[in-house]
Amino acid sequence: MTLSPRHARLLRQTFMDYQQTSEFLERPLILAKAEGLYYWDIDGRRYFDAIGGIFVASLGHRHPRVVEAVRRQLDVMTFVPPMHGVADVTLEFVDKLAGVAPEGLCFVKPYSGGSESVESALKFVRQYYKQTGRPEKYKFVSRYHGYHGSTFGAMAASGTGRRKTKFEPQMAGFLKVLPPTALRDRFASWDECNRFAAQMFDDVIVHEDPRTVAGIIVEPVGNTGGIITPTDEYFQMLRDICDRHDVALIFDEIITGYGKTGSMFAAQTYGVTPDVICGGKGLSSGVLPLGAMIARRELGDAFFGPAEAEIQFAHGNTFAGNPLACAAGIAVLDEIVERDLCAKARRLGQYLRNRLEGLKQYGVVREVRGKGILLGVELVKDTTTNEPFAELGRALKRTALDNGLILRIDPTWFAVAPALIAEESDLDEMVALIDKSLKQALDQVGRGR
Predict the structure, then answer these.
(1) Are residues 168 and 55 in the same domain?
(2) Separation between Cα atoms, residue 322 and residue 430, nearest integer Å
(3) Per the confidence metrics, is the pTM higher than 0.90?
């Protein structure tokens, strides 16, 4: 892509997410249009969007039902003063989201995105314990490699060191354990590894003193660690640990929510119900910024009482529950439910997994993992030693874009999460582009066959 002087000047006046602008200027990508499963850049070149932008466009780009819902709402009302009232469409969204959440999770607070939802959940749980007679419970335990958002509380809960060190010192009261993928080579089986990894949460809580620990927060499928996919037993152990120590279990479902894993929420896929779910990304299919915190009834009830008791949730955001965003969210939820797209995600997920397993022929794929259509592929130099192959990932990022393919690459693994509107033929096209790009990347690093 050849940049105009205007584009080059404006890129120097902004910041790219988690990357150096000077590097981006060497291989820029400026997009002009999106439709369905594709983007087009300013030169008119088409790209297959294998990750829904960034796990956002759950129904593809500019889905007609979602766009029309927003268009209708534009003619009615676009904003409500949050300290004076609430929009009827926002309450409808609350009802819709509670209706598809795991049983017992019915308190819904909409927000503008995932970071806000996580920040809200951390404050919600701390306040809950303060006003129910356990004010000393304030600590949270999460995982290394986990990512929960860019605001200070969400960042403190995250375990992605290089994304945090420039802003240290971090907030106090956040503790970390290793995810099972960081321990797997030390155990004879994946099940045994997961049991040990889950037990680490218990060990930390016990040694910190359970009277001081408020919550565990985890992603059911961890993105930044390479689509970390624990066992069902792992999450059941976390549920049992939380119950035993009076600790809230928070699932960060910003990436895993809204059908991707084969259920509306990964909590339902794993069969374990948390106390709080944080959502974002795919909730509006990328049409407008939208997130939500969903809490168990018993927790929400603790915030209702006379005004003089001052037990209301002491938190708010200007654009939380925005009518336009909520209209989009309702349309997304209705589309997923009415077309049974969760079942489709299970069917397509198995088909896609089988196709990605075919990449093992190149001898550089250690594992294909994930749930539903949210899948990751780990890259190694050799499947005997399983040494990470970052050079290949960096080359793949270049060749994928050259071939008109947008993947999540980081760089010892890559992830895909195509929109729920995809069909088998679309997945065939996507995997063919991945295969072509991987072969070219292997040629670039001297591993061509």
Answers:
(1) no
(2) 35
(3) yes
